[in-house]
Design brief:
- The chain is α+β, with helices and mostly antiparallel strands and 292 residues long.
- It has five helices and ten strands, in the order H-E-E-E-E-E-E-E-E-H-E-E-H-H-H.
- 40% of the residues lie in helices and 25% in strands.
- The chain has a five-stranded antiparallel sheet, with no helix packed on it. The chain has a five-stranded mixed sheet with strand order 3-10-9-5-6, with no helix packed on it.
- The longest helix is centred in the C-terminal third of the chain and has 38 residues, at 254-291.
């Protein structure tokens, strides 16, 4: 039973393969034009071929500063121009048996052009001087691949120097990036820094002098436990505001000062009001005692 099942699967696979191959269309070459060009781009020799023909040697030797141009027209199974995904020109050296590939560009439907510039450094690293066989490859997803041997052409190529840059040399050492750091800024004169520091502290000295001249005292803030609690918290909050200004001078920015200062300012105002309320309550109690 298993052998019959395996045989059936093989038959179905073979039929599927035949259906896929039958669904593929074939392509053919209508005309191939091979031109040899000089350094000025002018055609020095030319030869036209069909798919069954090969180069006869009319091109002669393509010089080291020249170009080899290939123009090809492809037809489908219905003899209409057909577009394929890839058309490649292969240059196979009969000496080294190495083959270089050059992708042909599409000019219009069914028409492709490929150019081999013998002056280009990348080209000179891929192909070799002497007799080279030209091969045309065309392939696409829904067509049967095509390979055509175009014949032999004589190429004169100057080998690229080892230190000569090429478009293919993408992995090479780049120039060293040297970082130049900004020199340190000069500090202000210590004497001027001291003068400005004293100028900043001067208002506090003036404030304390005014307190003394007005005979200000805080003794009533500690008359009982209630005034002592709110009085101490109020003075601590005032000290926190001064400390915040000091920290702002060292490391905070203006937005941070406003954020922290709004919280401390609200807390200081609340504690100051409660301290005044406690002080007023103390004054009321002392007045009641005098009336009694």
């Amino acid at each position: 039973m298993r052998s019959h099942t395996t045989l059936l699967l093989l038959v179905l696979l073979a039929l599927q393969t035949l259906v896929v191959l039958a669904a593929r269309s074939t392509i053919s070459v209508k005309k191939i034009d091979v031109d040899a060009r000089g350094p000025d781009g002018q055609i020095t020799a030319s030869e036209s071929l069909t798919q069954s023909q090969a180069l006869s040697g009319k091109l002669g030797q393509v010089k080291t500063d020249g170009k080899l141009t290939l123009k090809v027209q492809l037809l489908g199974s219905d003899d209409a121009p057909v577009a394929v995904q890839q058309v490649v020109l292969g240059v196979h050296s009969t000496t080294t048996h190495e083959e270089a590939s050059f992708v042909c560009s599409s000019k219009r439907k069914g028409a492709y052009v490929c150019e081999v510039d013998l002056k280009d450094t990348a080209t000179r690293t891929l192909i070799h001087s002497g007799r080279n066989t030209l091969k045309l490859y065309a392939a696409s997803r829904d067509v049967t691949p095509l390979a055509v041997d175009l014949g032999v052409v004589e190429l004169q190529v100057t080998p690229a120097a080892k230190d000569e840059e090429s478009a293919w040399d993408i992995y090479r050492a780049l120039p060293e990036i040297k970082h130049q750091f900004r020199p340190e800024e000069k500090h202000a004169n210590p004497f001027l820094s001291s003068v400005f520091s004293l100028a900043v502290l001067a208002p506090w000295v003036i404030l304390l002098g005014l307190y003394i001249s007005l005979s200000a005292n805080i003794s009533n803030l500690f008359a009982n436990s209630l005034t002592f609690t709110f009085g101490t918290l109020f003075l601590a909050s005032l000290g926190s505001v001064v400390a915040l200004y000091y920290v702002y001078w060292l490391r905070l920015n203006l937005f941070q000062l406003l954020g922290y200062g709004s919280v401390l300012g609200l807390l200081t105002a609340t504690l100051g009001r409660q301290a005044l309320v406690a002080r007023a309550g103390l004054k009321t109690v002392s007045r009641v005692k005098k009336d009694q």
